[in-house]
Amino acid sequence: MPFRADKSIWRGNNSPALVWTIPEDVPITGSTFYLTIGASGSLLVVKDTVSGSLVLNPTLRELRWTYTTAESRLIPAGQIAEYEIERRADGIEITELYGFMTGLGGLNTDASPGEEASLDFSNPDNSNLQLMGWI
What we know:
- By secondary structure, this protein is mainly beta.
- The protein has one helix and nine strands; from the N terminus they run βββββββαββ.
- The protein has one helix spanning 69-74, and strands at 3-4, 7-10, 18-21, 32-39, 42-48, 55-57, 62-65, 78-89, 92-104.
- Strands 1, 2, 4, 5, 8 and 9 form a six-stranded mixed beta sheet that branches.
- Mean pLDDT is 87; it is low at 114-118.
């Protein structure tokens, strides 16, 4: 059974990195790990240890995602996005960690939309509780 570990990210920031501790019963040797973050049926972020966009420290049993400012802004405000960390080894694919990825803040002065932008009310992912962005 996957281990649940909810996380939060401050939107518009690029620090601190998000770190997950891999449970002791999860084999690391020969494994690759994949982080997927999504909301409302859309993939927002995909990272992996193969490309180095997700870093594994086998000694500490930690996975680390050092996100960019733009990536943190992809996470919607509130407890809307979810994530999974999948392990792949020897033809087996298994979700080891999962949870909510809560977007916090995001009122940074460098995040304001341009004067020509408006909210996209025709986007089916937008609701009165969730507006996914500017057009």
